Structure formats: structure tokens, C-alpha cells
Amino acid sequence: MKLRINLNCIIGLSFAITLIGCGMDTVEFSQGEVGEVTQASIITGHKIQSVTEAKVDILVVVDNSGSMYNEQAKFGAQFDQFTSYFSDADYRIGITTTDTRSSYSHLEGVAGSLIEVGPNSELYLSKDMPGVATRFRNAIVGVGVGGSGVEQPLKAADLAIQKKDSANFGFFRDNADLFILTITDEDESLTSNVSAFSLVQRVRSSFSVNKKVVGFTIGVLQSDLSCSPFAAGSKVASTRVLQLATITNGYSFSICDANYGPKLSEMSRFMSESLTAFDTISLKHIPKKGTLKVHITGNNGPISWSLVGKTISFSSTPTGGARVDYSYLAE
């Protein structure tokens, strides 16, 4: 799969992202390993240190279109597996839908607003909430399947962040990491003006700290189109939505799986590891000698690095919010 990029403006297509018209030449990127992108033969990636260890806001975007009844039920029933590795963390889970209309019923077009998850109009779930697993299940299946068939999960997440000081006040915390989890059997509609790249930029511009954001997707993989709601020959993968996990070092699995439990447990482990402070970065390939470049911003005080094999090690643990960008040529 290729991504065609010109680094200023974004228009999404089903199997490509094209940036046009900003006075720069188009550059083609080949998609590499998860979290790394190859430009020509140069591999680039980045990692952001958690601002506060074990504190995370999880925005769950649920497809509430007509084909999602079984998938919602399978997901909603697996709360224990979903939280198995981070159940002791200071987490918040807020839920919205892929229907970005604002003139419909409260559980259909919510335009990024969080749905209520308790009898006292609570907007998010937390570990100390009584009956949290039951509330999670009821909220996931409670969004129903009467929503728009024009799914826009990335736009819904973008709108949710825009409402952080209004309808969604109190959910997003400056000093917590942000995980965005989407479950959908479709891709981001071509009518949407939001891409994975612009959503990450929305996070960057909306919070006062260098917030860590990681994308997670339960969607239609290119290798498994059996759950796509379209007829044979017209089935599509959740390409644009899956891209968020790719560019943020996240995790995805197929919505077509019969049992979500094992993969949700693995996703939970991945989330837990993302919340743990890092002092090393494991690369996907061994860099050619002399080609690795590392740039660290936002760290409190001087810090150095060294490379052994495929592992970058730091002289001290990068401080919360520090960003490490790297590039190299693979052997």
C-alpha cells in the first residue's frame, strides 16, 4: 500500500492519502512496519514519553450503523479482557459514535459528544465506578444500530476533542495520555475532511502539553474483508481509520474475529506497555552504520543516546512529554 503525501493539506481516498496544491512536490511513502514509515529508503518514526505513568483517557468511537449489532455485542461483553492489563491504572473511558450528525436522537447523531454511561448522567467510566463492566456493556450496545451509514470515526474523534471544554468537559485531562479506539466495519467516509494525520494535529493543538496519543482499531483489515457490509466485489478495508494506529505506534485487529477476547487482551497489554515510561526504543530493522539520526525535544535537561543492534538506549529516562524522532537506513 502507498501513501502519496505533499506535506501541507490532506484529502483522503480509500487506499491512499493525497496532499495536493500547496506548492510542494508530491512524495510517495511506502507503508513500513507499524509505527514506522519509509520515505524512499529512509525509515522514520517517533515515540512520546507518557506525561504521567498509568493515567489515560480512552475515547471509544463505536460504529452505530445498521450492520453493527453483533460486533457491538461481542465488544461490549469483553470489558474484563479489554482492561485486563491496565485495570489498576487511572483510566477514563468515554464513548461516542461514528454518526457525526447533530440533529438526530441522543444515541444516533451525537457529533462527537460523549454518551451518558450512568444514571447520574456520567460522561465517562472509571475503575472506581460501581458496576463498571455492566455500564460498559450497556453503553456499547446502547448506542444501537440506527445511526448514519456514512461512518466518520476520525471526524467524530476530532469533534469530541473540539468539545473538550463544552459538551465533553471533564473527560479529557491535560496530564493524561490519550488513546483513541475505533470499532467499525467500514472506513472513514470520503465525505469526511479529517484524516489520521490531521486528527493527531488536532490533539497537538488542543492541549497545553505534548500529549501522547495512540490509535487502536477493531476494523476491516485488507487481509480479511469477510465482515465488510458490502456485496462481494465492493468490500473495502478500514484503511483510513487503521492509519491512525499505524502512525501512532498503536494496535489493530480484525472486526471479523469470532471472539474478541484474546485480541482485546493483547490490545490491553499493548495499552499497558504504552503507559509505561520508556528508556529504550526497539527499532524494526538494524540501521546501516552511521545512518541513524535521533532528535529529542521537550526533555528536561541534557540526554544522550546510544545504539546496540536494533535498540536505542538513553542515558536517562526521557521526561514526561518528551518526543523522540528518529530516522535511518535499514541494512
Write up this protein:
- The chain has 331 residues and is an alpha+beta fold.
- The protein has three domains: 31 residues, no CATH class; 59 residues, no CATH class; 220 residues, 3-Layer(aba) Sandwich (Rossmann fold), CATH 3.40.50.410.
- 20% of the residues lie in helices and 25% in strands.
- The protein has seven helices and 17 strands.
- It has a six-stranded antiparallel β-sheet with strand order 1-4-5-6-17-14, with no helix packed on it. The chain has a six-stranded mixed β-sheet with strand order 9-8-7-10-11-12, with helices on both faces.
- The longest helix has 14 residues.
- It is globular and about 55 Å long.
Helix content: 10-25%
- End-to-end gap: 22 Å
> How many structural domains does the protein architecture include?
3
Structural class: alpha+beta
Mean pLDDT: 84
Q: Any idea what the shape is?
A: globular
Short descriptors:
331 residues, alpha+beta, Rossmann fold, six-stranded mixed beta sheet, 25% strand, disordered N terminus
Topology readout:
Layout: E1 2-5, E2 11-12, E3 17-18, E4 27-31, E5 36-39, E6 42-48, E7 55-62, H1 69-76, H2 79-82, E8 90-97, E9 125-126, H3 132-142, H4 153-162, E10 177-183, H5 196-206, E11 213-219, H6 239-247, E12 251-254, H7 261-274, E13 280-282, E14 293-297, E15 305-308, E16 311-314, E17 323-329
Short description:
The chain is of the alpha+beta class and 331 residues long. Helices cover 20% and strands 25% of the residues.
